[in-house]
Amino acid sequence: MDKILFWQPTVYPTPSPFIWIFFNYLPWIFLILGFLLLFFQKSRLSAFFFLFSLALAELFENFLKATLSPWRRPFLDQALPTPPALLSSHYSGGSFPSGHALKLTLLFIFLLALFRPSRPLRFLLFFLLFPFLFFRVITGLHYPVDILAGLALGLLFGYIGLILYRFIISRLSKK
Question: What mean pLDDT is reported for the chain?
């Protein structure tokens, strides 16, 4: 099981700086677009609860990485330089859990729950996650276990945010 959870390629690819920027920073654009979609297409309250969930998740992720992360990033253990276009200070610590996996999963949970897209669109959204998450592993930024933990925490914080959002909506509708 350890071989699967801690798998790493034997040779790390060296993508161009554009590819690094694309796969590292595009998820943040997705988060901004998701917030705007919620804000303008659903309600300001749904957008607020998305940001609230995202902030809680970010705090929890940073706490785990600063205090409990049991291992360093794989590329650091291989004595590879910080990949181009990444901030050395941000990527010098622990890798558990994957913040990209956490935040993208949280976003997709909110979008799927509040917009209820068709089944093909749900599958498309779900499979949009995988290139970003796979890139994090093959480039040595994360182990697969980091990605799985990020997915699980994204589900957790997404559902917590949705439960709170629905609770507040139900209270407001009773008044």
Answer: 82
